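A common beginner's mistake is to predict each chain separately and then try to dock the pieces by hand. The better habit, illustrated here, is to supply every component at once so that their relative placement is modeled jointly.
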Amino acid sequence: MLKPKRANRVVACLVCWTCHSRMGPNHFTLKDGGAVCGLCQTKNPLGNLRKRSIQEVTEPSEILVCFTQGGTAAHALHIECKTVLGPWINFASAETLEKALRYLGATDAQLADHQNQMRRCGQGTSQVRLLPLRKNLLRIDWNKL
Ligand SMILES: [Zn+2]
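With all components supplied together, the output reads:
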């Protein structure tokens, strides 16, 4: 029988109830009967751990970000354009949104497209790469991604 590929391993992942980030076992610490988030240091109950494939927490995904009001409101949309992944989030300015997209993993080309669309219309939909282990600035519901 073939051994399952290492990449298909199922691991315990934490979805933090404070910062809503998602992380694999190398990024949270088990302590005093809880799991401490590596991003915001909040202690979560062990019930917040979920079994997930290792790819989900180690590989980037692509999402769409719908934005309006001159880049001061945005929400995440599934790459298939139908599933809303998160609520509308307010940003202080278009620059703040751009910084957030860069932090989340947007490539230079994606950011340039975003800036063009922003300048032309003040609203639109930008495709953005989402890297693992980022604070969940767009409050993405990981079950829908
Ligand atoms: Zn956290």
